[in-house]
Design goal:
Blueprint lengths: L4 E3 L9 H30 L16 H22 L4 H21 L4 H21 L3 E3 L1
Antiparallel strand pairs: 1-2
Helix pairs in contact: 1-2, 1-4, 2-3, 3-4
Length: 141
Amino acid sequence: MPEGVTSRTTGADEYSGGAVGITVFAGVLMILVGIFHVIQGIVALANDTFFVLGQDYVFKFDVTAWGWVHLIAGVLVALAGFALFRAAVWARTVAVILACVSILASFAWMPYYPLWSFVILAFDIFVIWAVTVHGRDIVER
């Protein structure tokens, strides 16, 4: 348990271990999702022929532009994951907003790498659930 973090319900040094664990896991998942976006961005920038658009989809974008989008979004998502460890309200708000942005980017990226997009979508949905349901259980003293 990070020093200075207490349970909101008791105000004492006791805490809900499950809720804290889920929130910390959400932070770790956000960091991983950010790293995954950064890796996708680097691959798209380094080798724009690696990702192949199989069918004719509505979302057709230049792979190099997507590389920059994933790179920037990945850094922001990872930083939001680190901010979740501070247990601040602003960090939870930013985490939910950036997880939503990550969901939109993964959905639009689906024609290029469908399975990976679904994995990132699932991680982001878990992060939103964990932060909105269990985020209040820990607060910074």
